[in-house]
User: Fold this.
Amino acid sequence: MLLIRNAKLYTMDDLGLLDGGDVLINGDKIAFVGMNLSAPGARVIDARGAYVTPGLVDAHSHIGMWEDGQREETGDGNEETDPVTPQMRALDAINPVDRCFQDAVRAGVITVATGPGSANVLGGQFLAMKTAGSSLAGMVVKEPLAMKAAFGENPKSVYGKEGKRPKTRMATAAILREAFIEAKEYLQKCANPDPEKRPPRSLKLEALGMVLRRELPLKMHAHRADDILTAIRLAKEFNLLATIEHCTEGYRIADEVRAAGFGVILGPLISERSKPELKNLTMEAPAILHRAGVKFALATDHGVVPAQYLSVQAGLCVREGLPEEIALRAITIRAAEMIGLQDRVGSLRPNKDADVVLFNGHPLEARTRASLVIANGNIVYEGA
Assistant:
C-alpha cells in the first residue's frame, strides 16, 4: 500500500479541494480519499506543499501514430488510399516505445485517447491507453474507443487534388451518408435466419455497425462553424453517439452547440492559424463556450501540441477568462467523461485507477513540474 499525506488535494470529485488531504492506494486502485488517513505498513509519502491531482487525461491525440521527429518516415495515422477506412485500428499502428509517451508521463498525462488522423471521411478506430509502459497489452484501457470521422478541409484536400471524391464538403457528407446506409443494409442482411442469404463478411461494414448500434461514438473532426453544424446534422440523422472534436469555431455558434447535446473536445489551441479553417482560432473560445453552458474537455491533438503541454494549454485558457476549476476539470474528469472512462480515471475516488500526480506548484502554472507520477498504483516517474 501507498499513502500520500498532507497534500493540497484536487479530487475532481464530490470532496472537492482537500487542503491537507490524503490518498491511500492499494494495488492498482485508490482505496480511500480523505483527511488524516492511517494505514499500518503502508509506504508513506509526505506531500506537504505539493499539489496533487488525478492523472491528467488527453481526450484527443495521435500519440504513437507518428513517431516523434520522424513524421514522414514513420507516419501510420492516415491510410490515404480510400476515404472510407473504418476497419483501420489504432492498435495496429501505435509505437508504444515512442519517446513521446515518456514525455507525457513526466508531465502527469497518464490517459490518452489516440487514433487515426483526419485525411479520410471515416478514418478508423481510436483507443484509450495509459502512457506508462512498453507493451500495448498492458497499456490499453479500452479498444475500440471511438470511430474517427472528418469534415472540412482535410479529406477534400487529400483526395480532391487527385480528382477523387471528396472534392467538396458536399461530397464528404454524401460519402458518410452512403457508408452508413450501406452498413445499415448490411446489418439487416446479416440478420437473415438463412445463412446462405447472408452477405460475405465485411470488416468495413462491421466496424460501421458498431457505430450504428451506438456501441462506439463517432469522433467528429470539425473546425469551421458550418462543418460543426454538418457533423451535428448527420449524427442526429443516424441517431449516433458522437463528440465534436476540435470545435474551433464552436464559440461562434455556442447556442447551437449547446442545444445539440453532444460532447465537445476543444483543441489544439496553442497553434498557428495554419490553414483557412483555423483563421478564427482563439484561446478565448473555452471561456465563451463555458459562459454559454457548453461542457467540454481540452485536448492537445498531439503531435500538433505535444501531450506534455496539456496543462500549460489549460493554464493559458485560464489567462483568457476560463475559471480555474473548469480548466482543471477539462483535463481530468470532464475529459474522462468525454471518452466514456469516467468510472476508471479523471478523479481521485475509491475503486478508480490509482493514477495520481504530485506537482511542485499549481498544476496550471507554466513553471510547475510533476515531482512524482503514479500510474496504476506504480511510481513511474520521480522528479529531481
Remarks:
- The first strand starts at residue 2 and ends at 10.
